[in-house]
UniProtKB/TrEMBL annotation:
<dbReference type="GO" id="GO:0003677">
    <property type="term" value="F:DNA binding"/>
</dbReference>
<feature type="domain" description="Helix-hairpin-helix DNA-binding motif class 1">
    <location>
        <begin position="151"/>
        <end position="170"/>
    </location>
</feature>
<dbReference type="InterPro" id="IPR010994">
    <property type="entry name" value="RuvA_2-like"/>
</dbReference>
<keyword id="KW-1133">Transmembrane helix</keyword>
<dbReference type="GO" id="GO:0006281">
    <property type="term" value="P:DNA repair"/>
</dbReference>
<dbReference type="Pfam" id="PF12836">
    <property type="entry name" value="HHH_3"/>
</dbReference>
<dbReference type="GO" id="GO:0015628">
    <property type="term" value="P:protein secretion by the type II secretion system"/>
</dbReference>
<feature type="transmembrane region" description="Helical">
    <location>
        <begin position="15"/>
        <end position="35"/>
    </location>
</feature>
<dbReference type="InterPro" id="IPR019554">
    <property type="entry name" value="Soluble_ligand-bd"/>
</dbReference>
<dbReference type="InterPro" id="IPR003583">
    <property type="entry name" value="Hlx-hairpin-Hlx_DNA-bd_motif"/>
</dbReference>
<protein>
    <submittedName>
        <fullName>Helix-hairpin-helix domain-containing protein</fullName>
    </submittedName>
</protein>
<feature type="domain" description="Helix-hairpin-helix DNA-binding motif class 1">
    <location>
        <begin position="181"/>
        <end position="200"/>
    </location>
</feature>
<dbReference type="InterPro" id="IPR004509">
    <property type="entry name" value="Competence_ComEA_HhH"/>
</dbReference>
<keyword id="KW-0812">Transmembrane</keyword>
<keyword id="KW-0472">Membrane</keyword>
<dbReference type="GO" id="GO:0015627">
    <property type="term" value="C:type II protein secretion system complex"/>
</dbReference>
<dbReference type="Pfam" id="PF10531">
    <property type="entry name" value="SLBB"/>
</dbReference>
Length: 204
């Protein structure tokens, strides 16, 4: 013990300080390695990511809109029906019990897609025979303003391709015509044109 004391007293203090620092560093390294072994666990395989992604399906087609359609004329059960915007006139007629024996179904566009507030009129053969004269004195059925296609509009006096397209565009953007006079609201259709057309038109 005395030898140790004499060794310490005779040793340079700088050397002792360096030796002490070295001991502290070594001790710290030993403790760090020991701590890492304790906390790292035995498995070296990283945990799998078990989080799940919720996949929601999407459809390119928007859901069909629920609408109301009024069907009149030669069907078994006329009235207002709830329909969807992807249905055709033929389907609504079938829902109304089908046509009667007197129906002039050839005057109805069965393939037309229905829209909200649409009026579907199935004329009778009697109505078909009661034809109205056109501007040239020929007889023909009145044009249904809410179902007529471009060619039917062009068959009327004073209606060319441009006006026919304007009428159809107005109907698609604003809904069905409620009365004949509504056609005056179409750009390019004035009072004089309406006067020449009013006896040739119907809203059903």
């Amino acid at each position: 013990m005395d030898r140790v004391k004499r060794f310490i007293l005779n040793t340079d203090k700088g050397i002792l300080i360096k030796a002490g620092i070295a001991c502290i560093i070594i001790t710290a390294l030993i403790l760090y390695i020991f701590y890492e072994d304790k906390t790292s666990g035995s498995s070296l395989v990283p945990e799998e990511n078990t989080s799940e992604w919720e996949v929601t399906g999407s459809s390119d087609e928007a859901a069909a809109e629920e609408i109301k359609v009024d069907i009149k004329g030669e069907v078994a059960y006329p009235g207002v029906y709830t329909a969807s915007s992807d249905q055709r006139v033929e389907e609504i007629i079938n829902e109304a019990g089908g046509i009667t024996a007197e129906a002039a179904v050839d005057q109805v566009n069965l393939a037309q897609r229905v829209h909200d507030e649409m009026v579907i009129h199935v004329p009778s053969s009697v109505e078909e025979e009661a034809q109205e004269p056109d501007a040239e004195g020929n007889s023909g059925p009145a044009v249904n303003m809410n179902q007529a296609e471009k060619e039917e509009w062009e068959s009327l006096p004073g209606i060319g391709p441009a006006k026919a397209e304007a009428i159809i565009q107005y109907r698609e953007e604003n809904g069905p015509f409620q009365k004949k006079e509504d056609i005056i609201n179409v750009p390019g259709i004035g009072e004089k044109t309406f006067e020449s057309l009013q006896d040739l038109l119907s809203t059903y």
